[in-house]
Amino acid sequence: MAVGSLEFKFWRLLCETLDLSEHIDAHWQRGSMPNTAESKQAEQAMIEKFASQTMTYWEELFAEVDACVTPVLNLTEAQSHPLFAHQDEHQATASWQVTAGA
């Protein structure tokens, strides 16, 4: 999963959704700078939490949560993702769709 919860409001939702509320204050806007012990503990907790379930589980959970979390897809998965599925009618993705199918 790709996490882009840079603003505190997204970070808070991320922590709450992952049931890791103890790491809410491990955010730069709360004074916890990157690569500190506190931020590394939060990162490790999230790595372990995301590893505990399938990508499908996290996609479904975060579909209704505005926390800037999205799956990392390969080309084949991206072709069928709802975000790109309609673009074929405009041939906007034709070059990468051919590459993925090759």
Counting DSSP E segments of at least 2 residues, the number of strands comes to 2
Average predicted confidence as pLDDT = 86
Terminal Cα separation, in Å? 26 Å
Helix/strand order, N-terminal first: EHHHEHHH
Identify the strand order in the major beta sheet. Answer: 1-2
Low-confidence stretches: none
Helix content: 40-55%
The percent range for strand residues is under 5%
- Secondary-structure content class: mainly alpha
Please provide a brief summary of the model.
The protein has 102 residues and is mainly alpha-helical. 50% of the residues lie in helices and 4% in strands.
Question: What keyword list fits this structure?
Answer:
elongated, 4% strand, 6 helices, two-stranded antiparallel sheet, 102 residues, single chain, mainly alpha, 50% helix
Structure description:
It is a single chain. The protein is mainly alpha-helical. It has helices spanning 8-17, 37-51, 55-62, 75-80, 82-85, 94-101; strands spanning 2-3, 69-70. It has a two-stranded antiparallel sheet with strand order 1-2. The longest helix has 15 residues, at 37-51.
